[in-house]
Amino acid sequence: MSIDTSAPTRTSARTTSPVRPGSPELRALLDRISVDADLRDRDRVAPFEQITWAKEAGLGRLRVPVEDGGAGASVRDFFRTLIELAEADSNVAHILRTHYWFVEQQITSPDPEAKARGLALITDDKLVGNGFSEQSGKAVGLSFETTIAPDPAGGHRLNGEKFYSTGTLYSDYTQIWAAVPDGTIAGAVIPIDREGVTVEDDWDGFGQRLTGTGTTRLDDVHVTDEEFFDLGDPDELDPGYNGAFLQLYLQAVTVGILRSVRNDAVALVQRRSRNFGHAGAATAAEDRQVLQIVGEISADAFAAEAIVLAAADKIQDAFDSVVDGAPTPAATEAAQLAAAQAKVVIDGFSYATAAKLFDVGGASATQKVHNLDRHWRNARTASTHNPSFLKASAIGDHEVNGAGFPGNAYF
Length: 411
Description:
Elements: H1 24-34, H2 37-43, H3 48-56, H4 75-88, H5 90-95, H6 97-107, H7 112-123, E1 128-131, E2 147-150, E3 156-162, E4 173-179, E5 185-191, E6 197-199, E7 216-223, E8 228-232, H8 242-271, H9 288-320, H10 329-355, H11 357-361, H12 374-383, H13 388-401
């Protein structure tokens, strides 16, 4: 299904004062987004309206410095807010992932003119999606079949097909990475209503079903010189802390999911009017074994959040070390290590924690009308972006042999 370019997300409703972490305005926005999130997931109702509310509140400007029109959030405050957003609706949080990566690129850019252009999009409350990954025969990473080549008439031309275009369906612009004829790679940030761009809502994964993680088709799309940027030799790219940021983002989404599991577990137990005849108490709310499971779920959600925020502090250190667009190697390595460790640990228990919900709810909790299986499906889907075993083996190689981490944002 091609995107409807008249969707409400195309309008700009810039607020002069963006919501800030911990503010009453943010709390009101999150409460509003949370309403019927389970029903939207169950009935596949795309959250265009909720994304519009987020844009109207300036949520996309969380990390932009205050002097540049943003909320000036620290990395820790950003990830804490992201967890709260994912608790309200994990699809909405996931949709914004590459937009926030775009923000990080702009606020650390050493090019004043490019930085000004990027910040102008963000402070005008435009959202930026992505067109990086492909379903092709090439290895996952920085190898692309999509091409960007000089146009004799001026600028460049994009041709190809991208998949896993998370967020682009809801965005105003998309950032595309592609191969250049000379063997290097380059990128472009273009409006999604440009001639030749088609965004399809064909994501059919069993989890995170509303993220628009589907196909972007590029048919001889014109790219101006201003929109084009050279990325260079893919074998020499250093992702800085951006790879760690992108990966920890998914763990923060998972923490929000676990908080939702906790919330639903409490609600399930409180509304259960009966218990098993052979159980230790007449009601589930009085059953110490049921209460134990709720407590375990709560503890897991707490632990996962603590892990993500500890890793966020390492990303803050990397951000603070940036000079001329690049963090120090030591700070980069520490951020990558922390993000990888966070994923290995959280993936180790998050799926099982989501499944515990059915231990407190019984058979009725499996009814489709409740859609409680969405938590396991969503957590498991978010985890598949990068296999935990590859993270763990890279950590081990680093610890034992002093090996560096893969030099791309997919790690």
